[in-house]
Design brief:
mainly alpha, 75% helix, 9 helices
Length: 243
């Protein structure tokens, strides 16, 4: 299955990344993550807003780049593994992969939003990374620590990457997944003093957002398992030059 020009797969993994941002180990701790990599808290007063913003956005970008590189490497590995499987049992792999993605969506839908997610959480650290490289390495480390918590969405994204059947496409898909996770981080860093209000808004609607994300995964899994994704991809490729 050639997913090289398939916008559906990229849209699905981007949505999965955004749902991962809403997970218990990410959203409630965003202020602490930003404070850790930059040393600037979201509750700073309005004086020196521009300076604080510039102090936050670069370390945050390095942090996002760090976990994006980690996830892209995982995607490349999944794509490489998928290429071997697709050579032997393409249709079987599509069915199994589709069922797995459906299962991950149902898990995400069924578990709902834990009560502790709505509580305030703090990350106590003694010092921030001294350099941008240190912030990037922190991103790599945090990606590893996030893995158990964002398991359903990350596993679904890796399954999509494996179904691509190429290391390069697998890396690209997981990089797009990282954008879904990382863009909210960058926006929080850019609008550092307004981020707290925005996160409170999302916390109040986590059940709805998680349900929509889960539904997207289930629909995509059905398309993959039934072989309809291949047909849709072919149609999109045929109309691409016309568009």
């Amino acid at each position: 299955m050639d997913l090289g020009a398939d916008p559906i797969s990229f849209a699905v993994v981007f949505a999965a990344g955004f749902v991962s941002f809403l997970s218990p180990c990410v959203l409630p701790l965003v202020p602490a993550y930003l404070a850790f990599v930059s040393g600037v808290g979201l509750s700073s007063d309005e004086r020196g807003v521009a300076a604080a913003r510039s102090d936050v956005i670069l370390p945050t970008a390095a942090f996002v780049l760090g976990f994006s590189a980690m996830f892209a490497a995982l995607g490349a590995g999944a794509g490489l593994l998928g290429s071997t499987l697709l050579l032997e049992e393409r249709r079987t792999f599509e069915i199994v992969g589709g069922i797995f993605v459906i299962a991950m969506g149902l898990i995400l839908l069924g578990k709902g939003v834990p009560k502790f997610l709505l509580q305030e959480k703090r990350l106590n650290v003694s010092a921030k990374p001294a350099t941008l490289a240190g912030s990037a390495l922190a991103g790599v480390a945090f990606a590893v620590g996030w893995t158990p918590c964002i398991g359903p969405t990350l596993a679904a994204a890796l399954t999509v990457a494996a179904s691509a059947g190429e290391a390069g496409l697998g890396a690209a898909l997981l990089f797009v997944y990282s954008l879904g996770l990382g863009i909210p981080f960058l926006l929080a860093g850019l609008f550092v003093h307004q981020a707290g209000t925005a996160m409170d808004f999302m916390k109040a609607r986590l059940n709805i957002i998680s349900a929509v994300g889960a539904a997207v995964l289930v629909v995509f899994g059905v398309l993959l398992a039934t072989g309809q994704l291949t047909r849709i991809t072919a149609e999109l490729q045929s109309v691409g030059p016309i568009l």
